[in-house]
Every structure is written in C-alpha cells, then in structure tokens.
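ARCHIVE CARD
CATEGORY: sequence design from structure
SOURCE FIELD: tokenized fold
FIELD CONTENT:
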C-alpha cells in the first residue's frame, strides 16, 4: 500500500529511516543556526543604520561569532536591541506566513537562542556581548529578564513540539491508535 503524497507532506519526515532523519535534523539545525545568526546581526545593522550610526566592522559568517561595531553610535540601545528583536520577529513572521512545521522549528530555535544568548551573556559579563553592552548603555535589567523569559519559555516549548511533529509523528500515531494518551 502506498501512502498518498498529501499525507506524506502533512506528517513530516517520520517515514524516513533513522539515518535519514538524523541527516534531516542536522541540516535543520544548520539552517536554524544560520537564520538565527543572520537575522540577529541584521537586526543590529538595521538598528544602527536607522538611527544614524556609522558601521566600522561587521562579521556575519555563521562559523565565527558574528558582531558589528558602530562608531559613532548616537542611539546604542536601538542598535543593541535591534539584534535580538529582529532576530526573533523575522523568523516568527516567516513561520506565520509559511506555516510549515520546519519553519516553526527554525522560528522556535531563534526564539530560544536569542533568549539564552542574552541570559548567558548576562552571567558571563563579557564586555563584547550584547547584554553587558545593553546594561552599560542604560537598559533596564527587567526588560532583559522579560525578553529572556518571553523567548526562552515559548522557544523551548515550541522547538520541542516541532521536533516531535517532525521526527516522532509515527510513534505518536501508533500510541494514539493503541488508545494511549499522548
């Protein structure tokens, strides 16, 4: 019996072999990382350019730690907040418009990573990271906490759900057909 193509498209990659699913998962992580890095850094660039900052250096290759340096930067908080805000909003907007499970995986990955990045940077105190610079330029610490909670929690829940929908759908369907509550 052949599975109808419409059904195959709607259920994700669960019908693939384990090795193929691992390759798809690795590729999805690479795509997610690149999208997160580029949208986050694009947010800094757009924020800086919108408020008249002069870009002196930018590194956006995903295999390096991306950064951008503006000098002078008349409104550093706009430049700094642009990264995490665009880094979250752009992928979510694309996922809303595209409405595919893999797009939601990427969007939730970006939510999670941007929140974890700001939270981790706060604890490390590294002077080159966004959180330290945000605090240095007068950002209210509670806004940073709010951003972290508002991105980490739905990012984690969403990426977990997307993962299950993409890679564990056959197990869920089998359990549901046996009468188990999933």
């Amino acid at each position: 019996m052949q599975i109808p193509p419409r059904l195959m498209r709607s259920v994700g990659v669960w019908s693939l072999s384990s090795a193929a699913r691992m390759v798809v998962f690795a590729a999805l992580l690479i795509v997610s990382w690149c999208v997160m890095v580029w949208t986050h850094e694009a947010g800094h660039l757009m924020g800086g350019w919108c408020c008249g900052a002069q870009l002196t250096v930018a590194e956006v290759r995903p295999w390096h730690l991306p950064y951008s340096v503006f000098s002078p930067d008349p409104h550093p908080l706009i430049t700094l907040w642009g990264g995490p805000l665009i880094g979250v909003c752009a992928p979510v907007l694309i996922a809303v418009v595209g409405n595919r499970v893999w797009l939601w995986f990427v969007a939730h990955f970006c939510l999670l990573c941007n929140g974890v990045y700001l939270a981790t940077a706060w604890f490390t105190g590294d002077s080159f990271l966004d959180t330290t610079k945000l605090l240095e330029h007068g950002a209210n610490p509670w806004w940073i906490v709010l951003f972290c909670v508002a991105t980490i929690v739905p990012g984690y829940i969403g990426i977990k759900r997307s993962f299950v929908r993409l890679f564990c759908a056959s197990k869920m369907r089998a359990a549901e057909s046996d009468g188990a509550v999933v």
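CARD ANNOTATION: The mean pLDDT is 87. Residues 18-173 form one domain.
SHELF: design records, drawer C
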